[in-house]
Design a protein that fits this description.
Two copies of one chain form a homodimer. With 343 residues, chain A is an alpha/beta fold. Chain A contains 15 helices and six strands. The first copy, chain A, has one domain: Rossmann fold, CATH 3.40.50. In chain A, strand 5, helix 12 and strand 6 form a beta-alpha-beta unit. The relative contact order of chain A is 0.18.
């Protein structure tokens, strides 16, 4: 079944169903909007949110050499180990929500771990090149990273997932995400450049200079060669997530989108595979100032506005029980007729 | 142990603990605020959110005769049956979140059901009197309703609950809640009077007249006899919830407060047992316009702003997994030292 066929349920039919349930019409507010999105993404009035799977894509970024981050690249590898060890926020929230978690190293400089269902070594390189000085990756590398994401979505399908989440770990990755935001939302570097995981004023100013210059280089390529334009400024994990999202949409999954980095990946996915966004629910609007602009560009209304800025898929994991509740409302509530109440 | 002793953990100690966890300090945004509230209410860095218990208090309101509602009083009884049958939003969300649910009929005009752990007949009367014409209840009735709530919190303690929620079902109950808001927040009737479960313009105008007149009568009594003032305009379920909250706080529970009606009960609880509010987390700010004013009066910052207006404890049930996540963060995340990361 294609994504289009699955999405043939129209909003009026979904709303009519919601208005027959034993509650004043519209009285569950935003949860009813979530229910509509969920039914629409699955083309069903019996939407499912289980099993669900979180793929966290990790990579390092050459642009860290340009002094744009509060933390050194070594932290990427330490956090990969922490995620695998169960001590990271993403590990804890995935456990809480019965979400399977798989860490896919698509290009970090840290040591590899033993293969398992929870870990895959799919390194394209040990890091991107420094996008402050030239292209972050080659077009071949971009396609290879995208293909890793495609494979991960197919793997999720084989393992039975119905709803998928993506997360990321990569010190420095708000810089490529900001560049992609400038490139694909036609936004200014000032709007898209924020403090990431804690940049101070000097670092932020340096980061803005890098984003301004690199996104201008990419913009010059966009019309004639959009893949080269994205390769100029992207990160391996961002491109892998784009492949994951595009394929998840094609396979008819509901996609719960996380924060700034993953939304940059959503922009890439929508650019390469238009219509992907119709399978997306935005979990939250983060503290990173450009995130709202990206969500607006995609037409996504976030569920939480909680100033989250951690990444790893944590915002999507936090919002997941709200999507579960929307699904339960649609599936399990009695109708007015069931309850003998005249409307 | 008293509520005060349990609450002796100071915010600085809690924040220091959160800043040692493997995430950029503050990067979980509002979830960190929830974690601080949760630790504070339990006086512990290992807060628990299970087992959890929802008590739904139901009652009817004589003021429905004054034409202030969109639905007739019979719906209270039909919805009690629907909640007990598992088809109501509250039943569905309670099931989803492993929350035990008990419906306590504290004064409805509907038939009683067979006693069980999930149901208690504790009717004070078949309805309050019409507060548009005189006192809604006697002071003795108010004390009896409060006592039912006290017993229910004690019952929750015996059954092992660590976190409690209250909900309500009672056609017409936004009118007494609005009167209590005017009385206890020093707010205008215009701010406190909203559309409830769907009042049209004519009904809303009539409701505003009733709230204005009845709350003025109550206000005249407040200084000399606050219990009589509250009895003038309250509802049995609202007063029972106040007793439930006051006792839950005394017993050291975390209380997750739901919407407009339960927040009116929180105002009553705080008035009768000052300090109750320190055990509360506000789940959401509802579509009812006076709710924000009540929350501000109590100093509570709601987790969701989702335009919910259903009641039955549904908003608290929706927010519950977010509180679970806050607890899991505090308890289960690795520290930077664990992960070998220098801050």
């Amino acid at each position: 079944m294609t994504a289009n066929a699955r999405s043939s349920l129209d909003d009026a039919t979904i709303k009519a169903h919601l208005n027959n349930l034993t509650k004043p019409p519209g009285s569950l507010g935003k949860l009813e909007d979530v229910a509509i999105s969920l039914c629409r993404t699955q083309g069903s009035l019996a939407p499912r949110t289980r099993p669900r799977h979180l793929a966290i894509f990790a990579a390092d970024h050459g642009v860290v050499q340009a002094g744009v981050t509060a933390w050194p690249s070594e932290v990427t590898g330490l956090m990969i180990a922490n995620i695998l060890g169960g001590g990271a926020a993403s590990s804890v929230f995935a456990h809480q929500t019965d979400t399977t978690l798989r860490l896919v190293d698509v290009g970090s400089g840290s040591p590899t771990h033993a293969p398992s269902d929870g870990y895959r070594d799919a390194k394209i390189a040990e890091s991107t090149a420094n996008l402050a000085e030239g292209a972050a990756m080659t077009v071949d590398q971009l396609e290879a990273a995208f293909a890793v994401g495609v494979e991960e979505a197919e793997w999720a399908a084989i393992s039975g997932a119905r709803l998928v989440l993506a997360g990321e770990m990569g010190i420095g990755n708000t810089t490529p995400a900001a560049c992609l935001g400038v490139l694909l939302c036609d936004a200014s570097p000032e709007v898209m450049t924020g403090r990431g995981a804690g940049a101070d004023d000097v670092t932020l100013s340096r980061k803005l200079g890098v984003v301004t210059q690199a996104s201008a280089r990419a913009a010059a390529l966009l019309k004639d060669d959009p893949t080269a334009a994205m390769a100029e400024v992207a990160g391996f994990e961002i491109i892998a997530i784009a492949g994951f999202y595009a394929t998840a949409a094609r396979l008819g999954f509901t996609i719960l989108v996380d924060g700034f980095i993953t939304t940059a990946a959503a922009l890439v996915a929508e650019h390469r595979a238009p219509g992907t966004v119709r399978h997306m629910i935005a979990a939250h609007c983060s503290a990173e100032p450009g995130h709202r602009r990206m969500l607006d560009h995609l037409g996504l209304d976030p569920l939480l506005d909680w100033s989250l800025r951690l990444g790893e898929g944590t915002g999507a994991l936090l919002a997941l029980p709200l999507v579960d509740a929307a699904a339960a409302m649609v599936r399990d509530m009695a109708t007015f007729a069931d309850a003998g109440i005249e409307q």
